[in-house]
Protein: Riboflavin-specific deaminase-like protein
Organism: Amorphus orientalis
Amino acid sequence: MTTDRAPLPTDDGSWASVLSAARDGGRIAPEWQSLFAPIIGAGAGKPFVIGQLGQSLDGRVATSTGQSRYINGPDCLNHLHRLRALVDVVIVGVGTVIADDPRLTVRLVDGPSPVRVVIDPRGRIPRIARMFSDASTDIVVITQDTGPLDLPSFVKVVRLPGDGKGRIDPKAIREVLFGLGYRRMLVEGGPNTVSAFLEADALDRLHLLVAPVIIGAGPAGVSLAPTDALSDARRPVTTSHRLGDEIVFDCDLRRQQAPISPE
Ligand SMILES: NC(=O)c1ccc[n+]([C@@H]2O[C@H](COP(=O)([O-])OP(=O)(O)OC[C@H]3O[C@@H](n4cnc5c(N)ncnc54)[C@H](OP(=O)(O)O)[C@@H]3O)[C@@H](O)[C@H]2O)c1
């Protein structure tokens, strides 16, 4: 792992350089280079998918009663909005819509809001979800190829085959969105959705935003199928960045480090 020793800016001073690089090319201010150039410079002609999760030091995303607001501080919330501003679509699972009722727009920093995508295989998304009353960007709901859905008429519905247990292949989701013209995608949460994309090898990068708090119990961030041997564990090439008093771990899932071997 490498550490970028200079802390990331916590103000918007040079953020405009990142936005204009994403829009029309050009140079990103050096302080943002390491974190955002991989997203902006991701090769054309194929999808680029980044996941994010905010979590405690002990890897929890909520208390055991489900309280999750707020584990991370305002700087990490701004980081999330910056990620939204750099992608074509933001994807969440229906669990997040039910728990948090997010709008999924960019409000805390300058930048365009992405198209909003909800994965909802069983039609659980409430018709009164807040995102439906905000028409600033399109909304896509991805569901299984059968089953009822009660959604406002302006919502675009994409049906994909389930696996018989209600799961939809994340790679199929990635490909269908790419086919609709969306190249950069952010899987914003929650933990089940990010984990499913990671398990399916459908993420290129992962930002873990770690706050200095120990919760001790409650749902974990990333959960994958058990690995018996440590040598089989994923060891992405990772860079850490200080953001206020929190740390952003930027994991490049397409590059692996060698396992640690005893001397
Ligand atoms: N810390 C963070 O960064 C962060 C971010 C977002 C949310 N959260 C928190 O996470 C909690 C919710 O967690 P969660 O993991 O339940 O939410 P989630 O990941 O948003 O939603 C999970 C649900 O989405 C559907 N889904 C997602 N991917 C699918 C796939 N490939 N195929 C089929 N269905 C798929 C399934 O719906 P069905 O259950 O209907 O099958 C699944 O149970 C809330 O407490 C929220 O506050 C934290």
